[in-house]
Amino acid sequence: MTFVTSAPDMPDLRDYAFDWALVDVETSGLIARRDRVLSIAVVTVGPDGKQTGEFSTLLNPGCDPGPVHIHGLTAERLRGAPAFEEIAGRIGALLQDRVLVAHNAQFDYDFLAHEFARARLYLPVSQRLCTLALNRRVDPPTADMRLGTLAAHYGVPQTKAHDALDDTRVLAGILRASLKEAARLDLPLPLVACPPRQDPQFTPKPPKTPCAYRNPGKFASDGRLVQGMKIAITGDTATARAELVARSVAAGLNMVSSVSRYTSALVTNDSAARSAKARRALAEGVPVIDERAFLGLLDDVRPGTPHEKPTSAEPVAVAASAVVPVPVPAAAVVPAQAAAAVPVPPVVPVPAAREPEAVAKRKPLAGRRVLVVGGVHQDAAEARTRIVELGGAAAVNLSASVTDVVLLAGGEHDRRMPRITALRLPAHDADWLTAPAPTAVAAAYGSARTRSPYVLPRGGVIDLPDTRTVTRWDVRASWAQRTSCEIDVVAFIVDEDEQVSRDEDFVFYGAPESPNSSVRLLSDGPTEQTITIDLTAMPPAARKVVICAAMDGAPTFGDVGAVQITAAPDSGATPLAQAVLDAATTERTLLLAEIYRRGPLWRFRAVGQGYGHGLAALARTYGVDIAD
């Protein structure tokens, strides 16, 4: 295999030449800190595209192999195979000084990081490249981005799916073709520095039993404790801290590690308020109780109000005219009511059925993906809004799916213009959006896909399929690359009172997953981050997952431009819905989206509400205190 090509129109690939280590693992489950690697394959490739090495082996994990129906690796097949620590040195030598490549690379990297940690060895990887993230940038005309689908698109033979060695050989062919497409489009590679979050201080804590009761509010000095109250402790205590927490939890209290305006009481023997928690309690008006008084109150805690039990999911009748997306069915959509802790845009319901074909054809940008280049933020935002009104999809990056370009003032100086010209993409001025004419180019591209995502406006809502059909959703945020801007995507799991019930339900870079992994943060490159949500594993109090983005430092979202969000049933599937959010200009935080419960269903909502304050102020509205 070689990356060299004799085609006269193929760009030079020297900027895309690295020493690569292509990896695939089969595992006993999906959670790296709990599950084990059952088989591994590594193929090394040089900068010239030629294979330089190959290694694969089965592994004995010392545990149940998990979903045999997927990987086919039974306990009998694995018996007698080496343990990971026996081959870790050989794997490390293959990875040393190379860029790790995998399809959904964070998954493979996380498992390797944990296996190396168990073997008390250092994982020698400084960078990784995800071919899934790379192809999301390229955006080829495929039904989805799964390994087998991309292999068929790029003409790479696949012999045996879910076989680590065969998948790695297939991955080599996909990498070669993807790099050529990236070079043709002049796309920067989504390289990720490693290790991002496997340091010991970032290891998720073991799950604690969520409090079963709603927070009744602050403690009254002449009253009693009530089940569900949020209690924080600071300073030295005569009773062992573990015992004090255990007694409190047994009494039905919700023990938290930080203080916010939603904290019911702070337990401390420090009357001088010298700790940060005590100072925060004073600022927020949180009552302070000393240890002796608190122990007395624990003997007589009043019953609390249990969290509302979600409505049981009954079979949802889907009318003949309702949307039936491929590959999963979506229920009809009805308007939802906003109930956020901060202002959000009005709900814009999505139609329950696709428009009749004749109506769709009358929308001149149906099937097109249009990139807006140049202009001030407001002008570019208005242009993208108009594109959606005309039935098209607005792009935030140049990719293979872009069919048209709208040039606003100064757009001719954009660094992408030479590539746009070389690709012979139609370029139009702003007046073109008044009455664009349909073209055969867009129709030809659109026909290559079995289903396009719903294009949601700001505030748009769509029902998600029943959890018996789809349990996991990936909400992905992406934006144009700006060297001076760093964006952090975070998630808050909130209850019916719009509060985070426990500190661990705030997911961010320093704590990238909730205790039971129901919500996780994944990083797929400098311009793409994903929140994955397992709806069947949500804690009982969870009514909504609020997904936000925050700027680091002085830049604002006006410096970044539009942010695209998508909701997909898994990492490689075609998104069910997408939206481009232009709401923020001078703001430093942006509410991107919500996945929330509505009766028996869950819904996805594109929000797009910006705020001038930072992440710490936003977090406090949900009951989370972020230390300075």
What features would you highlight for this structure?
Rossmann fold, 27 strands, six-stranded mixed beta sheet, 22% helix, seven-stranded mixed beta sheet, 4 domains, alpha/beta, Nucleotidyltransferase, domain 5, 16 helices, globular, 628 residues
> How can the largest sheet be summarized?
7 strands, mixed
The CATH architecture of the largest domain comes to 2-Layer Sandwich
Enter the CATH topology name of the largest domain.
Answer: Nucleotidyltransferase, domain 5
The averaged pLDDT comes out at 83
Helix content: 10-25%
- Gyration radius (Cα, Å) is 26 Å
Class based on secondary structure composition and strand pairing: alpha/beta
Supply the number of helical segments.
16
Strand order of the largest sheet: 11-17-27-26-23-19-20
Uncertain stretches: 1-10, 313-345, 349-360, 442-447
Q: Report, as a whole number of angstroms, the end-to-end distance.
A: 51 Å
